[in-house]
C-alpha cells in the first residue's frame, strides 16, 4: 500500500504546472501575421510531366457535384458552387502547380484513377492527352492524365489507349455540366500526349513570365 507521505508527494507532482507545449511554426506565424504556409499553386514543384510524372493538386473529388476550386489568395480550397445540372465529375479534377493559362488560372487536369481523392491532396500523374475546350467563347483546355501510382492506370501513356466510351463520357460531362446555367461549352476532338506536353510547357513558360514581371514591379 502507498504510504501517506508517498501519496502526498504524488499529489504534489500531479498538481504542479506542466510545461506548456511549444507552438509550432504555423501557429506562431499566424500570431505574428507572417505567413509561412505552403501555397499549392506556387510552392509545389511539378516535376517533369513530359517524360515521367508530376504533382497534381486535386480540387474536386471523383463523383462529386460540388465545384471546389483553389482560392488563389489564400491557397485554400473553397466551394465555388454546386453544379446546376444532374451530373457529377467523372474523375478527380485539379490543376498543375506553377502553370498559368490565359484565363489567369493554373492549367486544369482530369486525373483518371480507380478511387476518389480528397480536395487539397496532391498526387503523381502522367499526362496522356489534351481535351481542347471552349467555355463561353474562351479557351479552357484540359489535360487528361492518369495516376502514376494506380496499378490499373499507370501503364497508359497516350489517350488513344483509352476505351472510346471513356472519352465519350468525359466529353459529355463537360458539354452538359453548365447547360442549366445557360452557358455554352464546346469540346473538340481529343489530342495525343505530345499536344498535352506542349500545352503544359506553354503554361509553365507563361507562369515564369508572370513571376518575373511581378518581381520586377
UniProtKB/TrEMBL annotation:
Superkingdom field: Eukaryota
Entry's transmembrane regions: none
EC class of the enzyme, as a word: hydrolase
Cofactor: Mg(2+)
CC per GO annotation: cytosol; nucleoplasm
UniProt key word Magnesium: yes
Family listed: Belongs to the PPase family.
Region Disordered, annotated ranges: 1-22
Name by which UniProt lists this protein: inorganic diphosphatase
Gene Ontology biological-process entries: phosphate-containing compound metabolic process
Amino acid at each position: 500500500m502507498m504510504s501517506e507521505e508517498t501519496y502526498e508527494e504524488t499529489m504534489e507532482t500531479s498538481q504542479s504546472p506542466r510545461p506548456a507545449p511549444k507552438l509550432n511554426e504555423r501557429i506562431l506565424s499566424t500570431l505574428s501575421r507572417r505567413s509561412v504556409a505552403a501555397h499549392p499553386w506556387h510552392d509545389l514543384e511539378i516535376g517533369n510531366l513530359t517524360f515521367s510524372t508530376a504533382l497534381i493538386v486535386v480540387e474536386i473529388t471523383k463523383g462529386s457535384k460540388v465545384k471546389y476550386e483553389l482560392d488563389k489568395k489564400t491557397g485554400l480550397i473553397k466551394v465555388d458552387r454546386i453544379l446546376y445540372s444532374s451530373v457529377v465529375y467523372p474523375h478527380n479534377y485539379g490543376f498543375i502547380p506553377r502553370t498559368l493559362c490565359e484565363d489567369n488560372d493554373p492549367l486544369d487536369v482530369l486525373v483518371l484513377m480507380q478511387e476518389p481523392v480528397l480536395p487539397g491532396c496532391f498526387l503523381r500523374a502522367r499526362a496522356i492527352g489534351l481535351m481542347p475546350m471552349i467555355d463561353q467563347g474562351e479557351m479552357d483546355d484540359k489535360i487528361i492524365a492518369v495516376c502514376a501510382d494506380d496499378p490499373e492506370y499507370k501503364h497508359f501513356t497516350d489517350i488513344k489507349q483509352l476505351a472510346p466510351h471513356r472519352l465519350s463520357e468525359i466529353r459529355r460531362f463537360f458539354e452538359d455540366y453548365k447547360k442549366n446555367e445557360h452557358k455554352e461549352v464546346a469540346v473538340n476532338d481529343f489530342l495525343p500526349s505530345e499536344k498535352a506536353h506542349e500545352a503544359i510547357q506553354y503554361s509553365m513558360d507563361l507562369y515564369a513570365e508572370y513571376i518575373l514581371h511581378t518581381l520586377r514591379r
